[in-house]
Amino acid sequence: MEKRSVIDLHCDLLAYLLMNPDATPDDGAFGASFPFLRDGNVNLQVMAIFTAVEEESSKKGVAQSAIYKQMQEDYSKQVFQAEAGFTSDTDKRIGVIAALESASGICNETEPLDNAFRNLETIISNVGRLFYISFTHHTENRFGGGNYAKAGLKPDGEALLDYMDGREIAIDLSHTSDALAHDILDYTYRKGLKVPVIASHSNFRDIWDHPRNLTRENAIEVINRGGLIGMNFLRAFLNNDQPTALLDHIRYGFDLPGGDNAMCFGADFFYVGDFPDPARDPYYFPEHEDATKYHALMDSLKGDLSEGQLSALAHKNVERFIAENWT
Fold first, then answer.
1. CATH number, domain at 112?
2. CB-CB contact of 67 with 20 (8 Å)
């Protein structure tokens, strides 16, 4: 089995470490822990700062950024901060970079908006660089509607987009309502904002009808703006019964106009022990349950994708995006 270099756009290791103080990035309880990343030849892992809509959300967001900073110090022989110019052969260690999953991590529902920007600056100071910001998670917050909500872009969301203009931070559509996705795309276009657009860990609604998945229209818009679409490995967003559905999502993405330049991985590994939902058990099919599984998956696609397309999926599309958007 060939082991290409792999880049993945989303995991929740930081939230796992916050919620489980005795855990370490080296343990085997988490699908994107360091041993799994090494065995999977993952050269860059984006680590999300995840918070729900709750009173302590901004404290938890800043706390996860501090965990990220300390992790870089404690595990400097294993990981390094990814910066402009990153490619999969930059360093033999695992490259890491932080992202913000839900802007509730910078401001709860009642704090003054000024607190959001102070907290965001603190987080960026701790982590060095943010790859992207998702405004919402599943539910609605002060910035807009999540994937299970109906609200679109709110004034606080507009203010955050204005802040992001020219700061080399992408806006992530993975957890937006359809209305919020539409409004973000419209607002950034009308205002001429320099904010890259991605979907870090989303699949395709035409393959599996779930509100977490991208409509064809939004997927094509992400592609047309030079963005990325990271394939999510969670069973609920693939097909409840068919592990091979992940292959269908990937093939569909490559068949979209320009999809060759956007497709990548965003496996969305998180600690399922913190989310006891019997209806979703198992959260991952065995074929996709940890970061060692990318290569068997790509081997299964060899009859459908060229070697160039497989390399694009594995790492080259993200490297292209970094080269075009980071200085």
1. 3.20.20.140
2. no
